[in-house]
Automatic annotation (TrEMBL):
Pfam families: Epimerase (PF01370). It comes from Cohnella silvisoli. Residues 2-230 form the NAD-dependent epimerase/dehydratase domain. This is NAD-dependent epimerase/dehydratase family protein. SUPFAM superfamilies: NAD(P)-binding Rossmann-fold domains (SSF51735). Coiled coil: none annotated. Belongs to the NAD(P)-dependent epimerase/dehydratase family.
Length: 320
């Protein structure tokens, strides 16, 4: 029985639906700091939860008889840079409450890290699973501290903590919020809406990205992996592609030849992106739990555009 925090977010809403398909609607309790009428709240139990309230976190998990916690509630990189103190309180306070709840109830815990956990001095290409991590953003500091905290709870208390270093995630079901890699989602949405996009990230800025279906399957595959195979726990590098805005535009133009891309750089988010790797190495995830990504850039583009056009035609709620 699973409790998901941040269930209305970009990852949460799709992961909730997938887990309900696999384990049944009632087995998955979705929670978030706000409520709105989406599938994540309508297709099964939902509860308002502020993850910085440790008692409320424990009560929600205990009343749901949770044996697994998927902790996604967080402030992402760009927002965290504008509100660093709130980011520390939410990202670290929330994670500590998730860990303490998992310890009290004996739950397995998934908590995501990010390529943001690497910094400007980290090798940018073929970034190893184990390497220098001195991130220069509040979000990156939260992610490194989170990786270490989750390892600590595994070694000290035997809590089955597991996590992935997510790259930028691209999806159409729910808009991303406050990230740096959101530009990639915005580009697809605007390609469909207006046929043009002004990118706040510059050409030549290569970042790791992955399509949401691959991210969802990776979470499930890692959580179900044979623990005896795991040499790492809370920070597996995973990615499907290393792209810059130009590469995405070329892929979009295979379907929308007139798509126009220009640039209006956001110094804050460009500086964040410049501190991140270009292309990370995923060999540990492959060796320890058979990670593999199904979607490359063009396959992702085709699915994104057809899904977004479908939403536009039928006016469905979502990223558009
Ligand atoms: C962000 N989408 O941009 C998140 C993610 C690697 C990027 O951590 O902050």
């Amino acid at each position: 029985r699973i409790l998901i925090t941040g269930a209305l977010g970009q990852i949460g809403c799709e992961l909730a639906n997938r887990l309900r398909q696999l384990y049944g609607d009632d087995a998955v309790l979705t929670t978030d700091i706000r409520q709105d009428l989406t599938e994540a709240t309508l297709s099964g139990p939902f509860r308002l939860l502020d993850v910085t309230d440790g008692n409320a976190f424990y009560e929600a998990a205990q009343e749901h008889r949770a044996d697994t916690i998927i902790h996604l509630a967080a402030l992402l990189s760009a927002t965290a840079e504008t509100k660093p103190m709130l980011a520390w309180q939410l990202n670290m306070g929330g994670l500590l409450n998730a860990l303490e709840t998992a310890r009290a109830l004996g739950c397995q815990l998934f908590a995501p890290s990010s390529i943001a956990a690497f910094g400007p001095d980290t090798p940018k290409n073929g970034t190893p699973q184990d390497t220098l991590q001195r991130p220069a953003t509040m979000y990156g500091i939260n992610k490194v501290a989170g990786e270490l905290l989750c390892d600590y709870y595994f070694h000290k208390y035997g809590i089955d903590t597991r996590g992935l270093r997510f790259p930028g995630l691209i999806s159409h079901a729910a808009p991303p919020g406050g990230g740096t890699t959101d530009y990639a989602v915005d580009m697809y949405v605007n390609a469909v809406k207006t046929g043009k996009y002004t990118s706040y990230i510059d050409k030549g800025t290569f970042l790791d990205m992955m399509y949401m279906p691959d991210a969802i399957e990776s979470v499930i595959k890692l959580m179900e992996a044979d623990a005896s195979r795991l040499k790492h726990r809370n920070a597996f590098n995973v990615t499907a592609m290393s792209v810059d805005p130009e590469a995405i535009a070329v892929s979009i133009r295979r379907r929308l030849p007139n798509f126009e891309l220009d640039y209006g750089i956001d110094p804050l988010r460009q500086a964040i992106a410049d501190g991140w790797p270009d292309a990370i190495d995923v060999s540990a995830a492959r060796e320890e739990w058979d990670f593999c990504a199904e979607y490359d850039l063009d396959k992702m583009t085709d699915d994104m555009l057809s899904s977004l056009f479908g939403k536009q035609l039928y006016g469905k709620k979502g990223a558009i």
